[in-house]
Amino acid sequence: MTAWRIIEAALGVDVYYCDAKAPQQKGSCEHVNGMLRRRQWLPRHLNNRQIRHRTRWVQHQINLMPRKTLNNTPALLAYAQTLNQDNHP
């Protein structure tokens, strides 16, 4: 995020950073981290090479999960529908 000033100016939004060691400020990240551990997709004992090997699979699993904010539609499907709407008005 070294270009945060450019992003603020281009989008007309404010950019905020979370304080270090303040998990309550980054709830969605903490939720995903907890989910990765609870579902044993990325157990703590894995080394970096093993984690890199599983990353695509885990990404796909997360994108297939229904999201409450998307009316229980998986993010992958909602994204595909958005692309389809943009291509076919």
What is the radius of gyration computed over CA atoms, rounded to a whole number of angstroms? 17 Å
Strand numbers in spatial order across the main sheet: 1-2
Broad shape = extended
Low-pLDDT runs of 5+ residues are none
Oligomer: single chain
Strand fraction equals under 5%
Secondary structure: helix percent? 55-70%
Largest sheet: 2 strands, antiparallel
Order of helices and strands: HHHEEH
**Total number of distinct structural domains:** 1
Count the strands? Answer: 2
Number of helices, where a helix is a run of at least 4 consecutive DSSP H or I residues? 4
Provide a descriptive summary of the structure in words.
The mean pLDDT is 87. The termini are far apart. The chain has one domain (23-87). The chain has helices spanning 4-11, 27-38, 48-63, 75-87; strands spanning 66-67, 73-74. The chain contains four helices and two strands. The protein is 55% helix and 4% strand. The protein is mostly helical and 89 residues long. It is extended. It has a two-stranded antiparallel ribbon.
Quick summary:
Helices cover 55% and strands 4% of the residues. With 89 residues, the chain is mainly alpha-helical.
Topology at a glance:
Elements: H1 4-11, H2 27-38, H3 48-63, E1 66-67, E2 73-74, H4 75-87
Antiparallel strand pairs: 1-2
List the keywords:
extended; 89 residues; 55% helix; two-stranded antiparallel sheet
